[in-house]
Design goal:
Layout (H helix, E strand, L loop, with lengths): L4 E9 L4 E10 L6 E8 L2 E9 L4 E5 L7 H18 L2
Length: 88
Amino acid sequence: MDVIAQNQSAVTKVTDNIRIKYSMSTKGKETLKDITASILNNDTTIGYFNMSRSGITGFSLHEGHGLSQDEIKQVFQNAIDDATDVLK
């Protein structure tokens, strides 16, 4: 049997209420090329994050996301650290 695609997910707990939920997929024996994530506050999606192996990065939060400046920095840093670890 040949594996055509593989999907993986992971979650990072940033604070008691804030989580980053990642999705990753590969085709066949390809190396993971990118990672996408939903940013959740109290189980409500408030933004998105993505990073490719080439370093292209996207980070966005919905208007009225409710995070403090420190929480935004913490979410972004966690997402960058997680993605760079996975995409090594």
